[in-house]
From TrEMBL, chains A, B:
Keyword terms, alphabetized: Detoxification, Transferase
One matching Pfam family: GST_C_2
One GO term (biological process): toxin catabolic process
GO MF: glutathione transferase activity
Domain GST N-terminal: 1-83
Species name: Cinchona calisaya
Enzyme class, first EC level, given as a word: transferase
Catalytic activity of the protein: RX + glutathione = an S-substituted glutathione + a halide anion + H(+)
Domain GST C-terminal: 90-231
Family: Belongs to the GST superfamily. Theta family.
Gene3D superfamilies: 1.20.1050.10, Glutaredoxin
Protein name: glutathione transferase
Length: 242, 242
């Protein structure tokens, strides 16, 4: 199967997909669609994904698919080398992973994207920063993190649902939370600080997917340093162009 | 398998689940959790679904599951009598249905719930009506309906993805759109009026699932009549208590 991934490593679901393929030895061609350069809005990319979002995949030059959770489910089933724990064949276990993934979209992801756009990345997409929307999104995000801690991570398992090995849900949610690294340090501490169990689980997922986890996140860490420098310049009366 | 469905027929994902079980001859016990009476917030129900939402299921008094898409996937796979078209075993077809379902949560559902809460149902949950939030949600809803028409319903198939038979995605999205029946008639016409192809597909899904579709929607149609009467009383100087 010839697999093309249309991704931007600055996008959290793109990273989940890249790490998944690398960890599972799935061969692919990485096609970068730079969001900050609006490449996702080009007519060429619209032919791949009419919803103009990353990630998307193309299989054997023909079959196209978007929505990161659908892609992760598909790859886990279509490539026989993928270990069962990523998306178990057992219907009861699989259903619980589906439940986490569906919950993610309406809760953690909604909060996280709202905070990131309205405090940090909005201007890069031509959107104003909106403090009121940021505050509302932070509530959703914080309550989602609390839910992860009290429910999805309850018990002694290293991963979601009390599991001893990661699933596509761990990878998807952890990549979402990693995106918060781009936030101002004080805001990051305010949001993640109270959730030790979440931070430990992020570490577990990182450790279970190394060295790919750090390799794929390198772009985000570089962006974090640039943003930090730019904020510190602003604070000392410098400009963004220094 | 002993199946309990915790549902409220006024909730669109609850209805999708009920219709799915009835059409496929799946035996179940219906446990009504009345949202308007806040029964979903009770400690008893929290033990079933800690996220305090309907629907949820319980299998053999033990296995609990929430998130309607996860439940529909699970039932389609766990009950051998369910026809393949509802959630095909073919990985490519299945992946596309997953893609529709995931897209639904961040687009159509988000718009629809925003419009319904901020124009109609908010006060029943102790929330104010918010015209600005309603206007924003209407944009999301209208662009989602346009997307369904131009992309998911492209071609000549009677159902989503050019299919000749319905899937769990048809049922889930159509039940979402049916909830808009509760809106004021002018608003309903403004939102659905421009989308003839969507209205035809709603009819196709209804016809493919009768008589269960109408039976399960009866509560919604009754609510629609009550709301209509109440609006007309308000318009003629009457009150809600007439």
């Amino acid at each position: 199967m010839m697999l093309k991934l249309f991704v931007d490593r600055m996008s959290q679901p793109s990273r989940a997909l890249l790490i998944f393929c690398k960890v599972n030895g799935i061969d692919f061609e990485e096609v970068t669609i730079e969001l900050f350069k609006r490449h996702h809005l080009s007519p060429e990319y619209e032919a791949i994904n009419p919803m103009k979002q990353v990630p998307a995949i193309e299989v054997d030059g023909e079959f196209k698919l978007f929505e990161s959770h659908a892609i992760l489910r598909f790859l886990a089933c279509a490539f026989p080398g993928v270990a069962d724990h990523w998306y178990p064949a057992d219907l009861f276990k699989r259903a619980q992973i589906d439940s986490v993934l569906d919950w993610h979209h309406s809760n953690l992801r909604r909060g996280s994207v709202g905070v990131l756009l309205n405090t940090t990345f909005g201007p890069a997409f031509g959107l104003p920063l909106n403090p009121q929307a940021a505050a509302e999104a932070e509530k959703t995000l914080s309550s989602s993190l609390a839910r992860i801690e009290s429910f999805w991570l309850k018990g002694d398992g290293k991963f979601l649902l009390g599991s001893s090995e990661p699933s596509i849900a761990d990878l998807s949610l952890v990549c979402e939370i990693m995106e918060l690294e781009a936030l101002d340090e004080k805001l990051h501490e305010r949001i993640l600080g109270p959730h030790e169990k979440v931070r430990k689980w992020v570490d577990n997922t990182r450790n279970a997917t190394q060295p790919h986890f750090d390799e794929i996140h390198a772009v985000l860490f570089q962006a974090k340093e640039r943003l930090k420098k730019s904020r510190s310049n602003e604070g000392s009366g410098g400009t963004n162009t220094n």
